[in-house]
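Hi R.,

Here's the chain you asked about this morning:
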Amino acid sequence: MSEKRPIRRLLEGVRRFHDNEFPHDHAIFEHLASGQHPHTLFITCADSRIVPELITQTAPGELFVCRNIGNIVPPYNRSSCEDSAVIEYACIELGVKEIVICGHSDCGAMKGLHMPTKTEHMPAVNSWLRNATVVRDTVEAANSGLEGPEAVQSLVEQNVRTQLANLRTHPAIATRLADNSVEMHGWVYNIGAGTIRVFDAEDRELLPMETLLAQLQ
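And here is the predicted structure, written out as tokens:
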């Protein structure tokens, strides 16, 4: 028997959703049909292993998700990329209360930063990763001897720090930070363990999720 085409699997999944899941949550979708009020802007990688709603156990309408290769947020400029529009819309129109940048283990984008030959046959990817060369420079300056998985993990962590700093250059976010109406958070998700670590208030040290939960009680 031949394997089902991926598109058939997707269509059958939609049918199962419509027939089995949608009726149970009909009231939620009826409410969402006329507008959205997400509480969090969730910026993460396009990696297929990262499913924000699954990881955070959130319902439709709670997260406003922005995804790209390497969860990169270029510093703001007036001719900036579409991610700037997502950020601006989330902060001004939707009024999100939290912003999360979530990096992850085994990130292909960070592997590409570490070994540029891996992406040299993909000019668009190469061009995009230039927005994160400062991440590589920072890691190499601090840990010049790192190689392999350790180097990639260091890049993953530094990348989250760097993108948090870049976020602060966006006027829509700077305004909200000034009046304390939004908070930013840096996460690093471990795919194999299903856990996250979070940066402290100074974006310096990664702490276990339980530490932050205890502080929020």
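One quick note: The CA atoms of residues 60 and 133 lie 35 Å apart.

Cheers,
M.
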